[in-house]
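Dear colleagues,

I hope this message finds you well. In preparation for our joint manuscript, I am sending the CRISPR-associated protein, Csd2 family (Consotaella salsifontis) sequence together with its predicted structure, so that both groups work from identical material. I would be grateful if you could confirm receipt.
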Amino acid sequence: MTDLSRRHDFVLLFDVKNGNPNGDPDAGNMPRLDPETGHGLVSDVSLKRKIRNYVEIAHGGTSGRAIYVQEGAILNEQHRKAYKAVRVGEKVEGTKLNPKSDDEAEELRLWMCANFFDVRTFGAVMSTGINCGQVRGPVQMTFAQSAEPIVPQEISITRMAATTAKEKEQRREGEAEVEGDVRTDNRTMGRKHIVPYALYRGHGFVSAKLCERTHFSDEDFELLMEALVSMFEHDRSAARGEMAVRKLIVFRHDSALGNAPAHQLFDRVTVSRNIEGEPRAIDSRLDNYPPARAFSDYVVTIDRENLPAGVEIIERL
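The corresponding structure tokens are as follows:
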């Protein structure tokens, strides 16, 4: 296992159908969106959560692939494991612990990187109480944004079952109206928010120089690619029943520092509307296209001409 020696940048395209890809808790769990443009958003935190979940499901229990940030975890207890490993034979107790020296601080940081996949991938702030320092991760991701403005819909739902005997009795008392052959009763009402269809685009970056500091390896990179491709396959729910990664396009550089600016490489990937078999540029101010309802309503093109020297395009999906 060797540290990653070359820089990578990537474009991730994924879509949602009749689901909520990333609810906003400050807006009643409505799908996140840019209020000025109406484009849908999915946060980087949400995408990283999906990657963590995949690694935990597919490789849980494998040495070096534990997940640091997981539901219900007490982070300081994760830090305590590092102190126990470094201070062999000593009692590691209390809610406040700090390294005795710079060398010990480095040992603690490296132990966390070696044992937790998400620490050496995304980094972590581990200076809370039981102090293991901070790690700047080599892998960073942007917010994903929809190719076109979205129109979230609010759907009414009902629940027929009662939660308590008292609620059941109240419902019986409310069964007063009968219209034809249909009985209307006092059912529990609810709401759910969906996006009928949207194609989202996000960008990611893998810094080879930061890989050296956390020992993020070529093997870790392959696991990251595996997780990006498959993360929605194991994240099904009523709100996210039909989400899928459609494209993963990687730009691999020949050097650790890179051979071209990331934004210039990303501009080579274009998403257009498929109108009667012809790709048409998306401009929400001018176009009057019918609403997209499937990935086939889009065309993804990659400009491979005159690539900067030392840059290779790899389609992982």
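For the figure legend, we might mention the following. The CA atoms of residues 135 and 195 lie 36 Å apart. The radius of gyration is 24 Å.

With kind regards,
E.M.
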